[in-house]
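Researcher: Here's the sequence for the chain we discussed earlier.
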Amino acid sequence: MIRKQRGYSGTKSQEVSDRERKNRKIAREAAAEGIVLLKNDGALPISNQKAIALFGSGARYLMKGGSGSGDVNQREVVSIEEGLKNAGYQIASKSWLDEYDKVYQEARLNWKEKIEGLAASIAPEVGEERSMIMSYSQNPFKAPAGRKITEKDVKEAHTDTALYIISRTAGEGADRKREKGDYELSTEELENLKEVTEKFSNTVVILNTGGLLELSFLETIPKIKGLLFLSQPGMEGGNALADVIKGDVTPSGKLTDTWARRYEDYPCWDTYSHNNGNIDTEYYREGIFVGYRYFDRFKIEPRYEFGYGMSYTSFQINGCVASLNGENVTVETTVKNTGAAYSGKEVVQIYVEPPKGTLEKEVRRLAAFAKTRNLAPGEQETLKICFSVRNLTSYSEKKASYLLEPGEYVVKIGNSSRALTDVAILTLDREVITEKLQNICPLKETLCEVALPECPERREESTLPRWEIKAEEVRTETVDYEEETEVSKEAGELADQMSPEELVSLTVGAVNGNRPTEIGNAAITVPGAAGETTPYLMEKYGVSNIAVADGPAGIRLSKHYQVAKDGTIYKQDILHSLEGGFFAREEWHEDAEDYYQYCTAMPVGHMIAQTWNPTLIETVGSAVGEELEEFGITLWLAPGMNIHRNPLCGRNFEYYSEDPVVSGIMAAAMTRGVQSIPGVGTTIKHFAANNQEDNRFFCDSVLSERALREIYLKGFEIAVKTSRPMSIMTSYNMINGLHTANSYDLCTMAARREWGFTGIVMTDWQTTKRGSDSAVCMQAGNDLIMPGTPEDKKLILDSLEGKGNVLLDIQDLRRCAKNMIQLILDSNQYEGCVSYLTKFEKLADYFTVTRN
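Model: Thanks. This is the structure I predict for it:
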């Protein structure tokens, strides 16, 4: 194979490229479609002939994404003010905004001083670079609310229309707090918001937050006319919001989480993370009853239900007909735009109510969904949505099997989880075991799950069509746990030739000389990339190095770096890739050449999922894949797909949903998009039950096998089976007392044997410095230890000789090397590489949608 000849990453020119312009359009489209309209009392859309008074922390300083490894160092960010101006609006609150500039910049400098002070105090113990990461991660910036809005501000505005922007950030290393200025509005925000609604008759609140907020102010400040959930929309966020405000784009986003009326309505509200003072052990006492499953079963009325989202127009979902062919259910429906003024898109959601049985179940479960095309007033579209009854199974720990219990399965259709119409009843007369497995990840202590109320009685619908599921027509399978992952003859022969030292160098990341940190900056050839594999096997074996880069809202690289006359890249520490280099000490070399790496900041994962549009997400993925290839990166460390178990999780902005089906479908769509570009791939993460950032390295997630499989692994399973990602990244946390990177049950039995995963498994950064043994990681099925340290290499070599904590079999190490070589040979580092998707004859579908 011929290796591609690549120069230095990026370009010497600062001119905007055609690729940047194209991908910004995609980012803008995705952001606009992910905005959720939660309330509209005639306030929206707003004619651009009107002036708008703009207040709040996010007016000029849009929170385009979260912090940490999920950040992107883009060329620029279009603020909300700029977006509205671009759309033709006059901004009527310039004096307030100008004064806010000063307050904001002072707050940023004070924050920087605080972080640097905290870092200096712990640097002697943990090192200078890691001290900055720890201090930064655990103390995210909180934007000030700004000064009190006065009568003078109102008189200067000369308008009755105001937007009030509430912004929040969060990120890696710390969970959010249930306190004012974070989950709750600050006193200053409440006072200003009340003043705005009193003085401006048409007030719309914009939530520029990566996660959910306490919305009780909607009761105490009832004059709010509109509420938009902007989320964190990426670099084109200001333009995207203006598209929706103006009415050029009709809102079509839907919530992927349940928005409670009060925080106490969530399961585990009092025990989550730091709330009970215990960040060491997290008991998942709610079991499978997460999100809408909990609210439905416990009969709790949410503020906004899962799947909810308003529009500027109206739709009818008509003529719903269900049919059964073997194990496959097809629901056909026609969606019509019944409005008179605006085009728009609707999301058709199908849920199934399972029967009562031996296993406790949710009231209803999302089975499939489809988004219409943009329908003009009076236009309609017919959708056929097909899914297997196997998607309705429950897991029995006693039988170590997924099964369908006998009884009636009621198919429902609508546009949210609580706006549903019954369509048909499927009946099953006997139990069917669809998949025979083995038990994994056993509990090490007693877990007392919450006592469940009786499942609500279903109203008998004698007029509904009934279909009998014939048990013999439902596919059944027994997993073969002995089957090994196959690699090519070439990969196997290369690994067999390598010495133990060479095998270790291939399976432990290469470091650029910086002290490795949990937020990656260890790449050698692509400045700012998270890490890289060894380049030293190319000459002897033709095995190239590959670079990997953080996500999931784009690619995190350094925007600028320099190359010396002798061709050496001047090293940059991690600070150059955080907050756009805000903390970095700029070192300018006069005799060097300058290179620029401008990546596209896409909307965050949570917002992308709110589009409910896998086709659009594939387009976003393809754009990311093109950038990976442009910068010579093989693996994108994304998408993140952990479950939104609680709204205070610091990284919810990166993840998709409280629902595993939504999470799996969105991750699969993103993966198919990225991997449509030859030789590049995704890394789905963090595997698994990684739902807390406080004490993330040592927190133990204690949960039942059923909850693990049905909720926290199901999305990963869907993504693996329907998109074949190149890589999986294990998480920092423990599951039932064992670090996930050390779990053979997760890395090998579940991922490879049960789901047929064929890529590589890698550790998260610095996992082996935080309780996981690198040799045990390899025994478990981790093929790549990242970012890699000399200590990792030594421990693995010692373990081969029985001098470590375990005796590592050379065949385990060689197996990891074979997987690594196979991925590298398939990568974009070689001429003639093809899309990773072409390796598989046909990808499975979790459900299908056809249109007429």
